[in-house]
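Continuing the batch. This is chain 6 of the set; chains 1 through 5 are on the previous pages. Same settings as before, nothing changed between runs. Recording input and output for traceability.
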Amino acid sequence: MMTRGPTIVRVNPSGGHSGGGIKCCCCRCCECLNLGYLTSQPGALKIAEAMLGSLCQSLLVKYGLSEASSMGSAFHGFLTTASACLLTTTLLITCYVLSSNSQQLIRQSIFEFAFNAVACFMYLSASSYMGVAVNIYLYPRYALVNMYAAYPAMTAVYYIGVVVGILHGVDAYVSYRYYKGLR
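Output for chain 6:
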């Protein structure tokens, strides 16, 4: 005898009209887009994570690449962290904007919580390691060489990295509450 699992029925709370898309004159265009996500709390968190992560990545590439050999694995570790987290965050934002079903399904899974918790840990540990490397290896050059731009830029990178790590931690907490149904 086969037993059948529970039947799951999802009801669209807006009565079949998604309310998404772009309002043009008297109608809506591109209703398949979930642009409302970008103005929600989780959307604002994701956008802030992506913007600050891309700022870190661009500062690392522009000012830190020439000093990568002196900073060693701290530079490469932070660049890897920023690149991986930025890629995943951008992919999640894209999925959530293109499909509200994706947003509901992914946020209900453990993935969002796990990713944000790992990203929080990675950013905070990479920032602390980068802070030590910058102050040991780059500060002496900054004190001696006029207009040495790598030290202030890499200092900004590890400070911003701490902020991004905290944002991912807050996002992990929000995602965990959503996952457990404690919205």
